């Protein structure tokens, strides 16, 4: 993944638009959750990507609301062609960003016909109730306090998988005119803007990493590793407010 | 060899625990450590390094904003950079810098120039102190590994 806020993405347009009945087709890989992460802070972007990959999500990380809209094809007036529809299962965005805030991005997503069903999670370093309420009322799925923990992401992931399973494997509302069945093609290779050099040189010791410019931080592999020790999930009640039931968990 | 490893490990443990106890690091750093695995053995160090790059930038911006040629200070501008410094510190567990930023923000909001200047000086000191201490900590890790040992997991308690 590029460090400059560029986009690493998995364009799954060829993957699916399973029709309503008709032809037998291979089942959707329900565990292929694709998350769009939006944060202007490089550190936070890398961390959230790490957290999401640990929980077996595919991640596209961008550095601004504008880039997010661009990625979603919402940055211009004309509707994006159905064939080119992205598979985005969740959008997680920082609140405080220059230019377009996470709240403004949330509104734009909820205004769009293609993506209004996609759950949007807001992250913020400030625990401001009015801000939380505002986001939830605008349709945010959840509100996480930064710094975001692995336990938070795991909970989101489980919630997502649960939703996908509940609605017979396809949480997204199918577009009205998509009654044709598209043959499933193998997923395209991930597009990246940076070369992966992490495998070509020996790993640096922490001291070397710490005192010298970083060459490449992110590898493009999926993280199927299970960590040997995961932190105890501490569910602090203040951290999260459920939509429409703003009591404490 | 084992005796050396054991000694280094004990030194490392004591040193790391002291960093937590003195408030240089908090549990966020521990969490970053826990995200490490064989494919990402230096994740915490990498994040610290990135955060320090960010911090240098933000401290530079604050310094420039406070040394405005026209004699007026744009406290709004200072506030933005202090917020960003606070966020990046919080993201990696740099507790003292983060806590200082909270105070700094209050001075900004109060348009208190002297307070801001004092905070800026302190932030610079804290940032540099933390950087040095972490360098020492990572040095110990390297020595342990070079002596054939494993770096013990230390969570600050």
From TrEMBL, chain A:
InterPro entries linked: ARR-like (IPR045279), CheY-like_superfamily (IPR011006), Sig_transdc_resp-reg_receiver (IPR001789)
Residues with PTM 4-aspartylphosphate: 94
Entry keyword set: Cytokinin signaling pathway, Nucleus, Phosphoprotein, Transcription, Transcription regulation, Two-component regulatory system
Compartments it resides in: Nucleus
Stretches with biased composition (Low complexity): 191-202
NAD listed as a keyword: no
A GO biological-process term: cytokinin-activated signaling pathway
Domain Response regulatory, chain residue ranges per copy: 34-161
GO cellular component, one term: nucleus
Residues covered by region (Disordered): 185-249
Pfam families: Response_reg
Recorded family membership: Belongs to the ARR family. Type-A subfamily.
Protein's UniProt name: Response regulatory domain-containing protein
TrEMBL record, chain B:
Record's keyword terms, sorted: Acetylation, Cytokinin signaling pathway, Cytoplasm, Nucleus, Two-component regulatory system
This protein's record includes keyword Cytoplasm: yes
Location in the cell: Cytoplasm, Cytosol; Nucleus
Domain of life: Eukaryota
Main location: cytoplasm
One of the protein's GO biological processes: cytokinin-activated signaling pathway
GO terms for MF: histidine phosphotransfer kinase activity; protein histidine kinase binding
Domain HPt: 46-131
A GO cellular component annotation in the UniProt record: cytosol
Main function: Functions as a two-component phosphorelay mediators between cytokinin sensor histidine kinases and response regulators (B-type ARRs). Plays an important role in propagating cytokinin signal transduction.
UniProt free text on domains: Histidine-containing phosphotransfer domain (HPt) contains an active histidine that mediates the phosphotransfer.
Entry protein name: Histidine-containing phosphotransfer protein
Organism from which the protein derives: Eruca vesicaria subsp. sativa
């Amino acid at each position: 993944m590029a460090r400059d806020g560029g986009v690493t993405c998995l364009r799954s347009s060829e993957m699916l638009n399973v029709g309503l009945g008709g032809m037998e087709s291979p089942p959707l890989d329900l565990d292929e959750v694709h998350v769009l992460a939006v944060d202007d802070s490089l550190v936070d972007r890398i961390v959230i990507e790490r957290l999401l990959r640990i929980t077996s999500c595919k991640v596209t990380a961008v550095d601004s609301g504008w880039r997010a809209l661009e990625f979603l094809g919402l940055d211009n007036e004309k509707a994006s062609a159905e064939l080119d529809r992205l598979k985005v299962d969740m959008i997680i965005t920082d609140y405080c960003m220059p230019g377009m805030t996470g709240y403004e991005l949330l509104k734009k997503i909820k205004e769009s016909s293609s993506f209004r069903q996609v759950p949007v999670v807001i992250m913020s370093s400030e625990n401001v109730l009015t801000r939380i309420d505002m986001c939830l009322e605008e349709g945010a799925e959840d509100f996480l306090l930064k710094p975001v923990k692995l336990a938070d992401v795991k909970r989101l992931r489980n919630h997502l998988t649960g939703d996908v399973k509940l609605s017979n494997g396809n949480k997204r509302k199918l577009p009205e005119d998509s009654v044709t069945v598209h043959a499933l093609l193998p997923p395209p290779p991930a597009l990246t803007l940076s070369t992966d050099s992490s495998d070509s040189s020996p790993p640096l010791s922490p001291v070397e990493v710490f005192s010298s410019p970083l060459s490449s931080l992110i590898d493009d592999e999926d993280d199927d590793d299970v960590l040997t020790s995961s932190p105890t999930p501490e569910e602090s009640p203040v951290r999260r407010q459920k939509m429409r039931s703003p009591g404490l968990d | 060899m084992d005796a050396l490893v054991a000694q280094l490990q004990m030194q490392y443990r004591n040193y790391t625990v002291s960093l937590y106890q003195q408030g240089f690091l908090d549990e966020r750093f521990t969490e970053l450590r826990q995200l490490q695995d064989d494919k990402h053995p230096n994740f915490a160090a990498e994040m610290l390094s990135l955060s320090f790059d960010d911090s240098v930038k933000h401290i530079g911006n604050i310094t420039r904003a406070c040394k405005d040629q026209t004699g007026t200070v744009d406290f709004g501008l200072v506030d933005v950079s202090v917020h960003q410094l606070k966020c990046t510190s919080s993201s990696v567990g740099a507790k003292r810098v983060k806590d200082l930023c909270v105070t700094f923000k209050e001075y900004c909001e109060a348009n208190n120039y002297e307070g801001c200047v004092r905070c800026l000086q302190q932030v610079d000191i804290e940032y540099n102190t933390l950087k040095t201490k972490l360098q020492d900590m990572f040095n110990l890790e390297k020595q342990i590994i070079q002596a054939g040992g494993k770096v013990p997991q230390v969570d600050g308690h």
